[in-house]
Amino acid sequence: MIEAQPQNQRAQRAGSWWPRLNRGALTWGRLTLTLHAFLMYLFLYGPILVLVVFSFTRDEFGVRWTGFTLEWYVRMFANDRLMGAAGNTLYVAFVSTVVSTILGTLLALAMERHRFRGRTGVDAVIYLPVVIPEIAMAVSLLAFSSLALEFIRVVTGEVVRRSLVTVIIGHIAFSISFVTIVVRASLKHFDRRLEEAARDLGANSWQTFWRITFPMILPGILGGALLAFTLSLDNFIISLFLSGPGTSLLPVEVYNKVRRAVTPEINAISTLMLAFSITLVVLSQLVQRRR
Amino acid sequence: MHKGYAIELANVVKRFGEVAAVDHVTLQIHDGEFFSLLGPSGCGKTTTLRMIAGFEYPSGGELMIHGRPMATVPPHHRPVNTVFQSYALFPHMTVAQNVAFGLKMKRVPRAELGARVQAALDMVRLAGFAERYPRQMSGGQQQRVALARALVNQPEVLLLDEPLGALDQKLRKEMQLELKSLQHRVGITFIFVTHDQEEALTMSDRIAVMNQGKVLQVGTPTEIYERPTCKFVADFIGETNFIEGKVVEQSDEYATIQTPDGLQLRGYTPRPVNLGEAATLSLRPEKARLVLPSHARPDDAFTMPVHVEMITYIGSDTRITVRLNEGRTLDVWEQNTLSTLDRNAYWQPGEAAVLVCPPANALVLTE
């Protein structure tokens, strides 16, 4: 978690990333192993590379390279529908991440730190949203939201429609589990004696949490938040089911565009989403390394 | 209750479920004393320390710190600080931040805080290390940071939970002496938990030997080593030979036991024994001498004819295993006071000898 890497290991890693073929004889074993590695990376990242490259092509179907252009990025930014959907998506991802990170962290703390009635039951149920098929989750959330909205109508007399709020609630519902899993892992490695040491030095429980426990498990919390954020960002089924009229989200919007025609504009927005996700991962890695 | 005691435990019990980890422990620890809790793992010494620190509350009994009842006061309101076995330094803070933590919690003004942190680091000879992180330091240095972090708060009592356990042998010896002299300088009561009897003997003013949740004996290192009051203490501290038998004679502070094979041995009784009672003679290997059969004088000492079985030369001493006539073996250590290569100066295997021991050097103990 926060343990420093041994210096020599870091030094080794900082060396050449190129396979060290020159050390020792160039055997068939080495050669096929290297080839295998290249093919694996090609399989994993080839499609993404194609996507990025063809977001800059002049070809309007985005399948041939006919020269470099930024036109699709310009068009994308001018597309109000697409930009609106992107804004909605970021908004939903941000709010659901903040809420699910707080709730998930609290749940992880309760599960790791306390013995209470029904703890084993909660333990078994926590992971359900991770393994349950997303479509089942989406249908259940849809049915439940109908019930809840109907209940609100009967009690208050106000007609409430599905909106970004219902999408956010749906995203929180499945994100909490992921956050809890990640935070629990970092709590498992946390040395309780550090908390005892803080108490011993005169800190009360509140001070102990904020000055010792929280900074120590922060990488876990950030990791959980990052996971929740990316899950929310590219969620399709739950977003589709729970969003109301006129509040579309980016993955749904992209799907609608793809159904009509694949244009490099789609490639451009996908490339941007990709860049955004990578930036987030890199940032979180940097934050964790600095500690 | 006596004001002069730094720590006072009266009939303290700690149960974990059905098991009594600490079983009616009563201790008085004087102000300014270096006091050790010594015992094998699982004897309740660490639980006792944790109750003094406040990490565990006693299931029964009373615990006082300088005459104030403290049994259920949370740790952050107790005038004690702890040095943990694994040091428990905060890895996300620098050395200076670690040491300053306790003072910050007490809202010590910034100007004073800096000076006190510096003084504490000077005291443990880590003046130049303030901005380092714990992971950048060696085990011995981390150990000293943990000491500074506790002592900077000027606690009434410092609790040390096997703090030298993770250090290598040489560093351990150094730290033992350093800790001892540190304690003299600061004049704070130290309560030191260890399973290492040599460490306890080296450092302590007084030692409490614990086993199975009970305190068996409290005394100075000399008392504990020379006059153990039970078999466990005699066995746990240092090395000894045990000879089982029955008490056949008893007078003043001495008693004679007879072994099943008829050998009669006399020794000192730290605790009164009864005639006919099963008892054990404890004879430390350095307290007996081997002499040639022609030199034996049977009047003022008990003597046993033996044969030398095995010789182990370890430089300062020679460790000799001797076999008694009926088959039992005993260990005897002889100091090599003469510097010589002459074979005749040393015992040889197979040689006949007489083991001589004044009664005051052997102890007759009951369970």
From TrEMBL, chain A:
Q: Which UniProt keywords apply?
A: Cell membrane, Membrane, Transmembrane, Transmembrane helix, Transport
Give me the segments passing through the membrane.
33-56, 90-110, 122-144, 164-187, 208-230, 266-287
Q: Where in the cell is it found?
A: Cell membrane
Residues of the ABC transmembrane type-1 domain: 86-284
Q: State the superkingdom.
A: Bacteria
| One Pfam entry name | BPD_transp_1
Q: Provide the membrane topology annotation.
A: Multi-pass membrane protein
InterPro entries reported for this sequence: Bact_Polyamine_Transport (IPR051789), MetI-like (IPR000515), MetI-like_sf (IPR035906)
Family the entry assigns = Belongs to the binding-protein-dependent transport system permease family. CysTW subfamily.
The name on file for this protein is ABC transporter permease
TrEMBL record, chain B:
- Keywords of this entry: ATP-binding, Cell membrane, Membrane, Nucleotide-binding, Translocase, Transport
Which molecular function terms from Gene Ontology are attached?
ATP binding
Q: Does the keyword ATP-binding apply?
A: yes
Q: Which sequence ranges form a coiled-coil region, renumbered to this chain? A: none
Q: Please give the InterPro entries that the UniProt record associates with this protein.
A: AAA+_ATPase, ABC_SmlMolc_Importer, ABC_transporter-like_ATP-bd, ABC_transporter-like_CS, Mo/tungstate-bd_C_term_dom, P-loop_NTPase, PotA-like, PotA_ATP-bd
Which enzyme class?
A: translocase
User: In the UniProt record, does the keyword ATP-binding occur?
Assistant: yes
What is any Pfam family matched here? TOBE_2
Q: Spell out the reaction equation it catalyses.
A: ATP + H2O + polyamine-[polyamine-binding protein]Side 1 = ADP + phosphate + polyamineSide 2 + [polyamine-binding protein]Side 1
Q: What is its EC number?
A: 7.6.2.11
Domain ABC transporter: from-to ranges: 7-237
The protein's matches in Gene3D superfamilies, at most eight in alphabetical order, are given as: 2.40.50.100, P-loop containing nucleotide triphosphate hydrolases
Q: Which family does it belong to?
A: Belongs to the ABC transporter superfamily. Spermidine/putrescine importer (TC 3.A.1.11.1) family.
Q: What is the protein's quaternary organization?
A: The complex is composed of two ATP-binding proteins (PotA), two transmembrane proteins (PotB and PotC) and a solute-binding protein (PotD).
What the protein does comes down to: Part of the ABC transporter complex PotABCD involved in spermidine/putrescine import. Responsible for energy coupling to the transport system.
Which PANTHER family does this UniProt record tie to the protein? SPERMIDINE/PUTRESCINE IMPORT ATP-BINDING PROTEIN POTA, SPERMIDINE_PUTRESCINE IMPORT ATP-BINDING PROTEIN POTA
Q: What is this protein's name? A: Spermidine/putrescine import ATP-binding protein PotA
Give the species: Candidatus Chloroploca mongolica
